[in-house]
Amino acid sequence: MNPLPAFKRRFAHGIHPDELTEQTVHLPIQRVPFVNQYILPLGQHLGAPAKSIVKVGERVQRGQLIAEPGAFVSTALHSPVTGWVRAIEPRRYPGEKLQAVIEIEADPYATQRLEPKASINWSSLSQDEFVKHVQQAGIVGMGGAAFPSHVKYVLPDGLHIKHLVINGAECEPYLTNDHRLMLERPDTVLQGVEMVRQKLGAEQATIGVEMNKADAIDILQKQVKHQQYQHIDIIPLRVKYPQGAEKMLIQSIFGVEVPTGQLPRDIGVTVNNVGTIVAIADYFETGMPLIERIVTVSGPGVEHPANLIVPLGTPVREVLRFCGGLKQTTREVIMGGPMMGTPIASLDVPILKGSSGILAFTAAQTSKPKEYPCIHCGRCVEACPHFLNPSRLARLAKVSEYEEMAEYYAMDCVECGACTFSCPSGIPIVQLIKVGKMEIRKAKVVAASK
Ligand code: SF4
Ligand code: SF4
C-alpha cells in the first residue's frame, strides 16, 4: 500500500471549520510551575481503571508507580510530583462520573527532579517486553481518546502490520500542541516513529500533517533527509475536519477505506498520535513514564493563551491562573477541542492523560442556536465522513428507537460533530446520537449478562 499522489489525497465529506490557531501557534511550549495538590483519577484512560498500590500518608517520588494496570486494556499511573498521598477515594470528577482518585500533596521543599535512569535498550526487547514497557509507562493515545497504546501493538495471530501511520493532522480548531511538538522536537518525533515502526515490523511509516503546518512539514522533511530515515515519509494533507480520525487519515493517505466493524490493523495499519510517539520515545530514552502532557490553553475567554507542559493531575484552575485567569466574559470552559471536547462543570477538574486543550469561551461562542424542525436539506449527510444519515439517527434517538439506530450503523459514528456543525436548524445531532449509542451499549451489556 503506497501513499497516494498529493492531488488525490482526501477523504470524502467532512467540513472546514475556522482554524482559530493564531492565538497560540507561534507560542513555544513552556512548563507550568508545580502546585500544591494533584488529583489523579484511576480511570483516566479507556478500559479498566488502574489499581492503586499506595496508601494514604505514604511518601511518593516524582515518576513513582502509584497504580498498576487493572486489566490488559488498562495502563499504569505514576505520581507527577514528589509528595504525600493525601486521599484515595471516589470523587465526582472529571465530568459527573463518580470514580476513585488518588490525591497527592506536593512537597514544597522537594526539587521535583526525576531520578536519573539509564535509557532502555528498546531494540533488544522482545515484542512482548516492549508491549509491557509501554503499558507500565502508562502511555495512552494523547490525541484525546486515551486508549491504552500497548493494546495496538498486540496483534492476533495471522495479522501483520505493514504500515505505521502517525497522526500529525491536529484538525480541531484552536489546538496547536501537536504542531508545536513537531516544530520543537522533530528529532524525538522521528526517533519514536522509527522505534515503533521497527517493533511492529512495519515496512514503512507515514506522518500525515495538514498543510496549514507548513513549517512542521518542512522541518520534519529536512530531518528525515538529513538523518537518512529511509522508512519514514512525511505526507502533507489538505486541511479538513475530522482528518485526525483514524479511518479518515488512512483514507486520505492511501485512498483505502477501513470496512465498517473493522479496525485499521485488519488492513495492516496502526495509527498513533504524534504526542503518543514522543511519550514513547521519551520513556525509552529517559525512563520517564507518562506524568505530564502538553496542553493548549486558548479561546477568547482566556487572558494569556499558551502551550504548556502540565503535570497530570494539575487542577484546571491552576493552569488557568498561570495563564492570567479567565476574562469576566467567559461563559464556558471546555476540556479538549471545540468539536469533540466536553464542557467542564468545575475548574477543580484535573488535567488528564487525554487533555489536549483547555478552551475558554464567551457568550458569543456558547449561545446555543434555537432549534428548528429538520428541513431535510441533507447537509448533515454531506458532512458525515462515515456516510451515515445523521438526521435519521438523531430522529430515532429522540423517540428512543435504539435498536433501529443500531441497524442504521449508529455505532460507526465517531462523534466528530461535523453533522451538528453543518445543521442550519440548530439540531444537536451528535448529542442525540451519543445518547443513543450509550443506550445501545447498555442493551448489549444487559443481553450479554442474561
Ligand atoms: S453522525 Fe457521527 S460520524 Fe457522522 S458527522 Fe455526525 S458525529 Fe460525525
Ligand atoms: S442538516 Fe439539519 S436540517 Fe439539514 S437534514 Fe440534517 S438534521 Fe435536517
What does this protein structure show overall?
With 450 residues, this protein is of the alpha/beta class. Among the domains are: 6-25 and 150-286, NADH-ubiquinone oxidoreductase 51kDa subunit (Rossmann fold), CATH 3.40.50; 379-449, no CATH class. The protein has 13 helices and 17 strands. Strand 7 and strand 8 (99-106) form a beta hairpin. The N and C termini lie far apart (44 Å). The structure holds iron/sulfur cluster (SF4) (2 copies).
| Total beta-strand segments | 17
Q: Give the name of the CATH superfamily of the domain at 6-25 and 150-286.
A: NADH-ubiquinone oxidoreductase 51kDa subunit
What is the CATH fold-level name of the domain at 6-25 and 150-286? Rossmann fold
CATH architecture of the domain at 6-25 and 150-286: 3-Layer(aba) Sandwich
Helical stretch count?
13
Quaternary state of this entry equals single chain
Q: Compute the gyration radius: what is it?
A: 22 Å
Average pLDDT taken over every residue: 94
What is the C-level CATH assignment of the domain at 6-25 and 150-286? Alpha Beta
How many strands, what sense, and barrel or not for the largest sheet?
6 strands, mixed
Strand content: 15-25%
Shape: globular
Q: For the largest beta sheet, what order do the strands appear in spatially?
A: 1-14-13-17-15-16
N- and C-termini, Cα separation: 44 Å
Structural class: alpha/beta
How much helical structure, as a percent, in the residues? 25-40%
Order of secondary-structure elements: EEEEEEEEHEHHEHEHEHEEHEEEHHHHHH
- Given as residue ranges, the uncertain stretches (5+ residues, pLDDT < 50) are none
Which small molecules are bound? iron/sulfur cluster
